[in-house]
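Run folding on both entries below.
>entry_1
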Amino acid sequence: MEYDVEFNSGAFYPAEADVRLAEIAEDKGFGAVWKGESNSTDPIVLLSAMAARTKRIKLGTAVYHMFGRSPITMGIQAATLNDLSDGRLLFGLGTANTTIASWHGLPFERPLGRIKEYAEIVRKTARGEKFDYQGEFYKTGVFKLSWQPKHPEVPIYFAGLGPQMTRLTGRYADGVVINMANPSMVRDIVARVRESATAAGRDADKLEQIFKVRVCMHPDRSIAVNKLKQVLAFYMVSDPNEWQAGHDTGYGALFERMGYANELAAVRKEFTDEGFRAAQMAIPDVMLSGDSNREPVPMVAASSIQEVRDRLYPYMEAGGTRIIIPYVPVTEDSVGEATAFLNAWRD
């Protein structure tokens, strides 16, 4: 099991500070530093700067989506960073959602078929192959890199939660990146990925199962709880056009599977009636603590580093190979708090 970090949740981290934090994370023994894509700083640009300032720590995208650039462009970027970092790139790829697709003027249609073809082109490009791809969704002319990469194999992980995507992951990807799943759900996802890989004649033991558990640490645990509720509210009310139309296939479906359907409905009602702040205030503590019948959501509010480690243990037992810890700061001094967390991890 590897412990990884991410500085991309609940606060803005300046790009130059992210690079310094990556250096500290490497020194403290973390396995990888990850960066996601949304409307924040760009993963490949930021990870390239980290690559130039580190030697061992792996560099992950969790996750890039398939709407912002062509798969050939993505393959060129992946090959460049993998060579620059001496083979340290971990490439997470996701289908995103209707909102992100709309930023780029593209429809969110048939995501499973699209991501399969996208990943195939990225692989061919990054390997330095000469190809002419004629798929259902993507078509290219004859293409080949102008150089032969010294690290041609870029591991590609699909962001997956539902049955269809996780089965596709087992057949075609090098592993899965799981966001917003409690230990029971992680076990189910890992089992589906492994079963699908085995059925496709692949070695399931070679796949990675990577999942995120957000962490906030403060001597007064209630302050950490309130901060994580802000992040949780974002996920509970995301893609309102979908759930207001009765087509909730995103994070809302996950909270229902965790047993928090009533809480989800109440939070969304507050959001619709009163706005985001009211939605945050409507989140009950039980979602972060769990009860006798339900596990907490994958967020840890802790008062000490030992409590963080103890709370992560059930996720370790769930079958993952890497835990990504997106650190969520309480104060405006995001860099100072993240630095303190990294230093506390291994004094």
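>entry_2
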Amino acid sequence: MAWSRTRPRSPGPDAEPGGGAAEEGERLSRLACSSCGAELTYAPGTSAVRCAYCGHEQTIVPSPWQVVVERDLASALERAAAEHLSDEQRVLKCETCAASFEADERAGAQSCPFCGSAIVASPERARLFRPDGVVPFAIPRETARERLRAWLAGLWFAPSDLGRKAEAEARLEGLYLPFWTYDCDTETEYRGARGVRVTRHVPVTREVQGRVVTELRPVVELHWTPVSGRVARHFDDVLVPATAALPLADLGRAGRWNTQSLRPYAAEWLAGFRSGFYDVPLDRGFAEAQAVMRAVIETDIRADIGGDAQRIEAMRTRWRAATFKHVLLPLWVAAYRYRGRTWRFVVNGQTGEAHGERPWSIWKIAAAVLAAAALAGVALYFAGGG
């Protein structure tokens, strides 16, 4: 996310949000190679789709009218089911982790890209906001696999067979994760207090060699002064995950994307990859974004109060000109089972940053504790003179 001063762009009166229903229908369609007829897939880090059989490449050229626009939040909440803002999709829902993602009608048995569980339910139809933009994959599968190997190799106190089993079972899948982004102008009035450190000298008596001596000892105190004021800030692209299936606790440090690389949505960017569908409503996403913004606003207030310490007793924020986008961000996801439990690993498809869940070896931890205790005992022995 960024707190920039870039102003939102509004679509023209004749612009069609999301690129039109026909384009959205292409999300599940087959992109055929013009040379051999095989299926084209997007080549990460490029602006082209590529045929794995004959090597033919086709450049992704967006239509001139395609731009990533900011949409008015209040209007969208009033008409979320309007035909020109949403489209009907075939959605699969995982019964294990509750993730929602697109149904691949060409595939047979399917598994959940989030947790690896088999999907046995039939697709359901849902009316959803169309994506406005996408950050294309920049990290190819093999690079993501190398990050997985390096991450596994660097784990402390991991079971000895973890790397071998995880690499054998983990199936890396490219997934576009749904996010909401919010822009908003904020103006906050606050009331609080400014604390300033003041040093005063207090007489203290004590006995020194049988005589009572009085001396001045410095004591630092905070003197508080009531204050009030106003701060304002424009927030740009506050990112909120639009699915609860892969929370930020799992994303960890892998969950940072640069939305300046956002491209207008086109089906070609998704060719060969799956995309998740959002299950966090637009209004709930904005509530989560407001919590992120409030933390920044509190920092602004403390800076405005100044002094050595600050108290914020009351604050009232006006949220103005709120806009949003529905965007898809790239993530490599691997789920593997180890000792009866599913563990997940993710690689940011734009930056290559990696994070994952991991098991611990109780035996290695116990051995390390015993070794540390033994070293401490040896140190005490020699410190005591043997």
